[in-house]
């Protein structure tokens, strides 16, 4: 297969592998594409999954079985097997026959062991076997796979999900969001956080149906996707505790909201990040050879900073525009709020975004009197 003209070599991290040439696009895949897709823009997404899998192996007292459930070229699974240190099994699966052949070739070329390559419908596979880490990286929404992934994941296993249906989750298509995630989105300057929380809330409700609870470990948004790493824990108490973090929010409760009287959610209002895990991921990152190391470092830095911050962020641009003033610099906002005894942190959602426990009046006064 490597002699085929439309195949080429790619290197990500410490792994070289084969992909089909025609499938490069930064805009993202289309479900009707027949050849296995490879998206170079997802390298950071895959790099982070290498760190999370290493963290899982480092912290596991039993033999770990990892699943790359929607593998396409197999790049994620092959990289995990090649770059994560430790003794573990991995299953790499895709229902597309060309993908299956390519994955087999990629596994063979690297002489990897303890790798099972399968050509199944992911939902069928998940109903047959249990895994400790399940990666769901679909075209669009992961919603169709969550029920079976929750049933398959072992106690304290990690469910990793990408959602590229960002327009739906951000409120461009509210009816689709309602159908797919059983939740109402909110098109606003903080829509990405609402979207991420709707996705986590959906996973929480799916888990609760099977008496399982969730603990978000790391959740982030990016230009064209959302990504969540969720630990799933067995037990009625765990399910009930998790459900306490679900809420429907009246849009009037969002200060600086331009669209009052709307119900938003249900969504997850608990923590999205696990600070201790992020610290440990940093140590792992230090030791790995990854092309996105600097960007990942900055992302982990921001996620750690906002881990304990209140839900929902503001942006200097949006508040300034609502108050009809010019936006103060981030330094000014941070200094003034901190000097008044409030907590304030940056957020990965936006370069001009910040989170604070300051009340509306105080924020307004900072924006109106900063010069
Ligand atoms: C976005 S691509 C995966 C990209 C890959 N994870 C990566 O990092 O390059 C989604 C893949 O899911 C596969 N797929 C879609 N629905 C599936 C299903 N129900 N069962 C198994 N594979 C499926 C498609 O054939 C496609 O290759």
Strand/helix succession: EEHEHEHEHEHEHHHEEHEEHHEHHEEH
Bound molecules: S-adenosylmethionine
The counted number of beta strands is: 14
- Spatial strand order of the main sheet: 5-4-3-6-7-9-8
Question: What features would you describe in this structure?
Answer:
The chain has 371 residues and is α/β, with parallel strands linked by helices. It has two domains: 7-282, 3-Layer(aba) Sandwich (Rossmann fold); 313-371, Phenylalanyl-tRNA Synthetase, Chain B, domain 1 (2-Layer Sandwich), CATH 3.30.56.70. 40% of the residues lie in helices and 22% in strands. The protein is built from 14 helices and 14 strands. Strands 5-4-3-6-7-9-8 form a seven-stranded mixed beta sheet, with helices on both faces. The chain has a three-stranded antiparallel beta sheet with strand order 12-14-13, with helices on both faces. Strand 3 (64-68), helix 2 (75-83) and strand 4 (88-93) form a beta-alpha-beta unit. The longest helix is centred in the middle third of the chain and has 18 residues, at 191-208. It is globular. 48% of the residues are buried. The model has no long low-confidence stretch (mean pLDDT 94). The structure holds S-adenosylmethionine (SAM).
Secondary structure blueprint with pairings:
Blueprint: E1 7-12, E2 15-20, H1 43-58, E3 64-68, H2 75-83, E4 88-93, H3 97-109, E5 115-118, H4 122-128, E6 131-136, H5 143-152, E7 153-163, H6 166-169, H7 174-181, H8 191-208, E8 212-221, E9 226-234, H9 236-243, E10 246-250, E11 263-268, H10 275-287, H11 293-306, E12 314-315, H12 316-323, H13 330-339, E13 344-346, E14 353-356, H14 360-368
Helix pairs in contact: 1-2, 1-10, 4-5, 5-8, 8-9, 10-11, 13-14
Bound molecules: S-adenosylmethionine.
